Amino acid sequence: MATIIARKRKKGMRYTAQIRITLSNGSIHTESQTFDKKTHAKFWAKKREVEFNNPEFLHKVAMSGITIGKVLQLYIDNFSTNNPEQPFGRSKLAHIKQLMNFPIAELDAIQITPKQIVDHIIERRKSGVVASTVNNDLIWLKNSFRAIKIINNDMPLNLKAIKEASELCRIHKYVGKSEERNRRPTIEELNTILSHYQSVSSRMQLPMVDIILFALFSARRQDEITRMQWKDLDKRTSTILIRKMKHPRKKTDTTVLLTPEALALIMKQPHVNGEQRIFPYVAKSISTSFTRACQKLGIEDLHFHDLRHETASWLFEMGSNINQVSNVTGHLSWTSLKRYTHIHNFDKYDKYSNWKWRPVEESMTDSPVDKP
Prior knowledge:
Low-confidence stretches: 362-372
Structural class: mainly alpha
Radius of gyration: 29 Å
Strand order of the largest sheet: 1-2-3
Oligomer: single chain
CATH class of the largest domain: Mainly Alpha
Strand content: 5-15%
Distance between the termini: 82 Å
Order of helices and strands: EEEHHHHHHHHHHEEEHHHHH
Mean pLDDT: 86
CATH topology of the largest domain: hpI Integrase, Chain A
Shape: elongated
CATH superfamily of the largest domain: Intergrase catalytic core
């Protein structure tokens, strides 16, 4: 199986050990290594012959050539594209596809080494990407390798390499969790944004004033706003069913409580023939418009998602307890909500009480979340 070829060079003799073997799939596998001494070449060839006698090792060799990019694509195909009940979220899918464009995607998924993965992470950090974002690279690599390895028992993916690389990256702080975001819009910032949208409303298809106010008083994410349906609204109980609401582990249908402000905004929306959605718009268009408006108006570091955080903070400031707030926001755990409880130490403080944009009259009943 192995042959030793001697070649005379200017600096002396060199010995190349070559191995050629027919694999179980019918393909021919060849490899070679060059040494200064013949004994070293023989030792390497003998070592490789022993390894090739191991069926498990031989199987790995036969399966070599499957790239990380191919594994990521299989992950998308099997667990998102072919799974209409639980497709990947927009950000997850975008991150995986971005990962497929990096050089690491061309590497062998079976022969990949921890060093190659760490090198990828280091290069990403050098390019200015923050630790929490780079950490997602490791998460999706690990998830895809684990998933494809389970559904393809004959694919010996090197999941161990990812685990070892992940541990090293955590120790040396190359990756980490995202920093807790506490950005809240001020009344002045909200006035500026809403006044801007009111002035251009005649030229826009999106009713951004209503959408922003609804997000502010409902804690709904942009994609949830654009998925809400009239049939899921219960005006009697001031509740609405949010289908496939995002949660840490899975998406699930969740009934949430509507504040009077949020309900008033829903009832303001027109009923369009044949349209089941309350806000029949594209979610990405909402965030894009909001971001561009903030940039134009000089409002720094404010995201549409911050309006959801603002709702929780406002409700706690109004004196609502954890259960009452979670009924509105849809949070399932105290861990997710506790970041909002220290804002004003539960002191009753309604900064929107006299706000000109508040979408309800003072004569309306108090918010359900204020009731004991």
